[in-house]
Every structure is written in structure tokens, then in C-alpha cells.
Design goal:
The chain has about 550 residues and is mainly alpha-helical. Helix content is about 70%, strand content about 0%. It has 30 helices and 4 strands. It has a two-stranded antiparallel sheet. A two-stranded antiparallel ribbon has the order 3-4. It starts with 5 loop residues before the first helix and ends with a helix.
């Protein structure tokens, strides 16, 4: 090497390797920072104290974990410690945008930003570095009010793409760009965007496997049956990265659910509820056994054949729901400070109970059992009440009460006609049509209009296949191809039923009722060997099943053929 060039080369190397740190000209956060129980990240800021930086980092990690209320509190603490801390207000504003869920609290976001300054220009003036100005300018797009939400989401994603390119060593910039990719389709999976997000998150994971956002977004990018195997590593990692976050425990189940790994689904959501309930006790709140994690737990129990545990989960929701609603009424100021309300809490809890009750009706097949007699208040649930119509109508049709089933089918049709579009859930009209056609088809078959009934259920199945995949348990409660398979089997068409059950397993792998239907169809088609193989797969799901579970003896007997 030419000695005369060494100083130039050395300067170039220093500039290249420290571009990220020098671009922010920050004294704090240039080294990785760990928040116990939540993970580790490197995010330099202009914080003027270690305490403000630590509060900010807590908020950042909670933000990556979708623990939004707790994240907002952490950012608010950073604001109090340093009132002109621009990134703290950026962080709080970010907690009111839940892109993957298609939720944006525009008023709360604008209020958070307004605390920093009255206008975007005034706020930008308080961001001391170009990098912080760029972050702030991006979040301003979400709350600008210019254009539709979808247009703002698209512009925000483009801004994050530019930010990530401008600061390639900023791991969190890459992750927030990945999140923006998944959030720009209004809560509907776009496979190209999701896989790109997963690739970005996976690269970030290799750079820092303790950043919860990396594992989290990698999972979200691949939590569908076709790709879930590619994110098993992330699923195994996330719960260990952030043991103090309930969502981290639950989120692993997105991959396990997509692969039909029921033991892991159950364990993940039991752990999630342990964290949530411990935090509720510490905060003096009631332990309410309703919500997203309990919904998945109940569904997992049914797949394991643990019907009693599933029923106990539903019973616990019914028992504790009033406690949650009453606490919300008594603590309205607390909720308002968190940008919530008693009405929102009540609606959320009732909606969860509706989901759990519907799951129990469909999965247990006890048409006159405890779930069938459980009362659910749907008065404030809007179109979500349509799911109740499907579950109740389906149970009625199965027990032969065609009058009730027809009434629910008519109510479903009314919802379908009324809800032709939905900003909050673009796929809702499709689901309403699917449930309406499936239930209508069953009723028609029971009324001896077999051909018309099969046409209706096939229409439901084709529509379901055409829609973007939604993570989690089947959204319409019962996959329409499973419905079609069961009807064909009852009509003495086992070969056709086999095709439908096998198709159903592609979108709900290892689902127990689908496996049961497939095994019965294979047996009816005189393929004892295939039936035995499917029964053995079902028994693997049911290794801890209730001893008196219907069909357990059948599966054991037929699996030996």
C-alpha cells in the first residue's frame, strides 16, 4: 500500500464505519442498551440525560412488541424528563398507529405531536439532528389529515423506505420500514410486502438477535401456512427475548398456529396470560380471562381434544367479563388518559366472549350444550354480531331446528347487504358473504334442496380461497371447504369430500375436525390405509385429549387398520 495514501484511506474508513453515529451527533444511545425483560436495541438520540434515554428505550422496545399503552407511558416519562426531547414525542405518536391491525387514533397522535410544537415546522426545529428530523417528518405524514388513511400509509411507507436507505446502519429504521410495508394495505396481507418485510426483519435479527422487533416482524411477515416454517427460528426466539411482554409470548403462536403445532399454541398463550394477569395484579386491575390470547388458547385446547379445558376457558371469560366492565366504569379517568373509554372496554370484552362462544359451539359440536345456552350481549357490536348469527344458526341447523337456522341466515344476509364496504376491516364484507352462503347452503340441503345448497357452499369456499389469508384461527369459525366436505360425506359422496377436506387443510393445517372428516371420508371410500394414517395424525393432536372425547375411540380403533 502507498504510505502516502494511508491517512486518506484511514479517514475514509472512519467515515464509513461511523456514519450512523456521526450522523446523529448524539452522546447517548450509541452503544446497545438492554431493558430487562424486553430486549436490546441501539438507538442514538439527543437525550440530555441517561434517564430520558432509558425511558425512551423502554418505549421503543415496547413499541416493537405492540405493547402500545405501556410504550406510550414510557415515552411520556421521557417527555417529562426532557420536555424538548423530539424523539420522545415521535415515539408517543407512533404508539397510536397500529398498521397491521389497520388502526389509527389520529386525534391522539396529533395531540402527542402538538405537545412538542404547534406546527410540523416548529416541531422539526426542535429535532437537533437530520436523522431525528427525518423520523419526525415520517410520522407527521400519518397524522397530517392529507388524503385518505390508505394514501397516508403509502406515503409513510415511502418515507420509511428513504429513511432506511439513508441510515443503513440504523437497525430500527430497517425494522420500522418492514412494519410500514405490512401496514400499508389496511390490515390485509399482501404476500409480496409481507415477505419483503420478513426478509428485512431476518437480516436485522442476524445483526441483533435480541431486538424484539426483528423476531416479531419476521414472524408477522411469514405467519401463513405457506411460509410459516421459514420463521420457526423467530418463533422459538421471541418469547425468550422479551419474557415480560405478553404479546411476545403470544406472538410465537402465530407460527405455531399456521403449522398446526397445537401444544405450542396452547403453551404460548398460557404464558401470555400469565404475564398479562401478573401485570394486572400489580396494577390493581381485575384479571379478566377474555381477549385475544384466551381466544387462541381456547381454540388450541379444542384442537388438542381438551374440550373441558376449552369450556373452562370460556366459562372464565363469562365469569370475569363483568369484573372488567365494572372496573372500566369505575376508572374512566384512567382509561381516558390512555385514550380509551369504558364503552370501548365493554365492547372489546363482549366481542371476545362472542368469539369464544362461537368457537365453542362450532368446535364442540354440542348443539344443546353449555355454549349453546350461554347468553352473549351483541347490542353494541355492530356487524360483529353477524358471527353470532352464523354460530347460532349453524348449531340450530345441526340439531334440526331449521326455523332458527333460517332466521339466523336471514339476519346474516341482512348484514351482508348492509355492509358492502368497511374501512376498519376491508375483508369483512367477504367474510359476511362466506358465512351467509355457508349457512344458507346447509339450510337448503336440510330442506332437500341439495344442489342449490352445494352451490351456495361452493361459492363460500371459492370466495374464501380468493381472499388474503388472515393469521390465527379460521375467521368464519368453520372453514367453508370443511363445511362442504362434511355435507358431501353425509350425502354419500366420499371421494368428493376427500378433495374438499384436503383443500381445507391447506389453509388450516392439522385442524382436528378437518382431519376427522378426512379420515371418515377415506374410510367411506374404502381406503382403510389412508384413513388409518389420517386417524393417527388426529391421535397425535389428541395425545392429551379428554378420555370421553367423542370420536377418540373411533380414531384409536381405525388407526390400527
Amino acid at each position: 500500500m502507498n504510505i502516502a495514501l494511508r491517512p486518506v484511506a484511514l479517514i475514509a474508513a472512519i467515515v464509513a464505519t461511523s456514519a450512523f453515529a456521526s450522523s446523529v451527533r448524539a452522546e447517548r444511545g450509541t452503544a446497545p442498551q438492554t431493558i430487562e425483560g424486553l430486549g436490546t436495541a441501539t438507538f442514538p438520540t439527543s437525550a440530555q440525560s441517561d434517564a430520558a434515554q432509558t425511558a425512551f428505550m423502554r418505549g421503543l422496545l415496547l413499541l416493537h412488541l405492540f405493547e402500545y399503552p405501556a410504550a406510550a407511558k414510557a415515552f411520556e416519562q421521557a417527555e417529562k424528563l426532557q420536555p424538548d426531547f423530539a424523539m420522545a414525542y415521535w415515539g408517543e405518536a407512533m404508539t397510536y398507529n397500529h398498521g397491521i391491525w389497520n388502526q389509527l387514533d389520529a386525534d391522539a397522535g396529533r395531540a402527542a405531536l402538538a405537545k412538542l410544537g404547534a406546527t410540523p415546522a416548529a416541531r422539526a426545529a426542535k429535532a437537533p439532528t437530520e436523522r431525528e428530523k427525518t423520523y419526525l417528518a415520517a410520522v407527521e405524514i400519518l397524522y397530517s389529515g392529507h388524503g385518505t388513511k390508505k394514501q397516508r400509509d403509502a406515503r409513510y411507507c415511502k418515507a420509511m423506505q428513504k429513511l432506511a436507505a439513508a441510515y443503513p446502519h440504523d437497525n430500527d429504521a430497517q425494522l420500522f420500514y418492514a412494519l410500514a410495508l405490512m401496514g400499508r394495505n389496511e390490515g390485509v396481507r399482501n404476500e409480496t410486502d409481507y415477505l419483503q418485510a420478513a426478509e428485512i426483519a431476518q437480516r436485522s435479527f442476524r445483526l441483533n438477535p435480541q431486538n424484539p422487533g426483528a423476531a416479531h416482524y419476521w414472524i408477522h411477515g411469514m405467519d401463513d401456512p405457506a411460509h410459516a416454517t421459514g420463521a420457526l427460528e423467530a418463533a422459538r426466539a421471541l418469547s425468550k427475548i422479551a419474557p415480560d411482554a405478553g404479546h411476545a409470548q403470544h406472538m410465537t403462536a402465530h407460527i405455531f398456529m399456521a403449522l398446526g403445532m397445537w401444544d405450542d399454541v396452547v403453551t404460548a398463550n398460557i404464558n401470555a396470560m400469565k404475564v398479562v394477569n401478573a401485570q394486572a395484579r400489580a396494577a390493581g386491575k381485575p384479571e379478566v380471562e377474555c381477549g385475544h390470547y384466551d381466544e387462541w388458547l381456547e381454540y388450541g385446547y379444542f384442537q388438542q381434544g381438551r374440550y373441558r379445558e376449552a369450556q373452562r376457558t370460556l366459562d372464565a371469560c363469562a365469569k370475569t367479563l363483568p369484573l372488567g366492565i365494572e372496573w372500566a366504569k369505575q376508572n374512566a379517568p384512567v382509561l381516558r388518559a390512555e385514550h380509551g373509554s369504558p364503552e370501548q372496554v365493554a365492547k372489546h370484552l363482549r366481542g371476545s366472549m362472542l368469539t369464544m362462544r362461537g368457537t365453542a359451539l362450532v368446535e364442540s359440536r354440542e348443539w344443546n350444550g353449555a355454549a349453546a345456552t350461554l347468553k352473549v350481549d351483541v347490542s353494541d357490536l355492530g356487524a360483529q354480531a353477524a358471527w353470532n348469527d352464523f354460530a347460532v344458526g349453524y348449531a340450530a341447523a345441526e340439531r334440526g331446528d331449521l326455523t332458527q337456522a333460517q332466521r339466523n341466515s336471514d339476519d346474516l344476509h341482512a348484514w351482508r347487504e348492509k355492509m358492502t364496504a368497511s374501512e376498519s376491516d376491508p375483508q369483512m364484507p367477504g367474510y359476511l358473504a362466506i358465512m351467509n352462503d355457508a349457512l344458507r347452503g346447509i339450510v337448503l340441503i336440510r330442506q332437500q334442496h341439495v344442489d342449490d345448497g352445494l352451490v351456495a357452499i361452493r361459492a363460500a369456499a371459492q370466495r374464501y380461497d380468493s381472499m388474503a389469508f388472515d393469521f390465527g384461527p379460521p375467521v368464519p369459525y368453520k372453514p367453508p371447504r370443511e363445511v362442504l366436505g362434511e355435507q358431501l360425506l353425509q350425502l354419500g359422496k366420499p371421494a368428493q369430500a376427500i378433495v374438499e377436506f384436503q383443500a381445507a387443510l391447506k389453509t388450516a393445517p392439522n385442524r382436528s375436525l378437518t382431519l376427522l372428516g378426512l379420515a371418515r371420508a377415506q374410510a367411506a371410500a374404502h381406503d382403510a390405509k389412508a384413513a388409518a394414517t389420517t386417524y393417527r395424525q388426529l391421535l397425535a393432536n389428541w395425545h392429551a385429549a379428554d378420555a370421553d372425547l367423542p370420536a377418540l375411540a373411533e380414531a384409536r380403533e381405525r388407526s390400527a387398520d
